[in-house]
Amino acid sequence: MAEQNVINVPFGMADITVEGESIGLQADAATFTAEPKYVDIETYELGLYDKYLEGWDVKVKVVFQEESYEKLKIALPVLEEVTTGSEKIGLKDGRLHQRVRDKGKEIKIHPRDAGLSKEFDVTIFKAYPVGVFERKYGKETSKFEVEFVGLPMTGDSTKGGNFFLIGEDSVV
To answer: What is the domain partition of the chain in residue ranges?
Structure first.
């Protein structure tokens, strides 16, 4: 039986995975935002009468502590690998005019203080990195920040569960 009147105070970092692979250490707090996008419905006599849900603006900002070719490809998925034989020796900018929807990845955020409970896990079904990639070269520990936006998982706007989930998905 669930406890009544329990106050949950989230605290601390989270374990973050992209397509099931851990991003490793976080250099700073991750931030998840979900903003519903509404359209005003107005009538001539009453003015604002209702709101209509038009979409979602879903974002997550992650600060990577560790750097590797794999993590750079998470931040910039249009990069192409440079190889010599079977050895990966670098990354280069990818070709222009390519669609990126198929490069969207599932991101899961599991609060560490939740233990095994998935009650407040966040899943973004199809996330894609946007914004500027910036890496500083200085005396301090290096880190890089990546902001992901949530794309709709399907083109069917008549169904929910297109952008994100908080909690554990039901098993059918």
So the answer is: 14-166
